[in-house]
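In the design runs reported in the main text, the only information available to the sequence generator was the tokenized backbone. The following block is the verbatim input for one such run; it is reproduced so that readers can re-run the procedure and compare outputs position by position.
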């Protein structure tokens, strides 16, 4: 029974691919996918913050660095830390780090938005250790937040790319 399991799995994948192909499904990153129009074509403007740097790096990782930009992506960030775990001695042991990214995609040389949106997510970090450990945990959380916001923006950009 276990020797036929891989064969069954392969058949399921092939049938799934055929079914998706029959419904007009086109992979966004495929050769004919809409996402190809954004590959190496987006110049990114982010705030000069740790999260902005991480967001820019993640977008460039996923879309490629713009060699001859056709589009400009402008991102504004709103990030605020808030205590979520407080001991009876009034010491904060955990912080929530919610973030919102408002983005606009424009053609180079034109300030008219061709796509825009707002995404939000959060991360958290522990403040129960030493001062150095808490600062490192906060920095790591801010990096994770920038990456997560970038991934959400990329998803929205891939949807918008179908109309470009």
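Verbatim output:
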């Amino acid at each position: 029974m276990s020797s036929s399991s891989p064969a069954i799995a392969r058949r399921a994948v092939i049938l799934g691919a055929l079914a998706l192909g029959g419904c007009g499904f086109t992979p966004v990153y495929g050769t004919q996918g809409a996402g190809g129009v954004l590959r190496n074509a987006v110049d990114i403007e982010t705030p000069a913050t740790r999260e902005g740097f991480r967001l820019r790096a993640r977008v460039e990782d996923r879309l490629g660095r713009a060699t001859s930009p056709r589009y400009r992506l402008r991102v504004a960030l709103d990030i605020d830390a808030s205590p979520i775990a407080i001991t009876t001695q009034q010491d904060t042991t955990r912080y929530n780090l919610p973030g919102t990214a408002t983005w606009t995609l424009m053609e180079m040389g034109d300030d008219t938005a061709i796509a825009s949106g707002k995404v939000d997510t959060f991360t958290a970090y522990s403040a129960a250790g030493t001062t150095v450990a808490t600062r490192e945990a906060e920095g790591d959380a801010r990096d994770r937040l920038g990456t997560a916001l970038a991934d959400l923006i990329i998803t929205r950009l891939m949807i918008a790319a179908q109309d470009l």
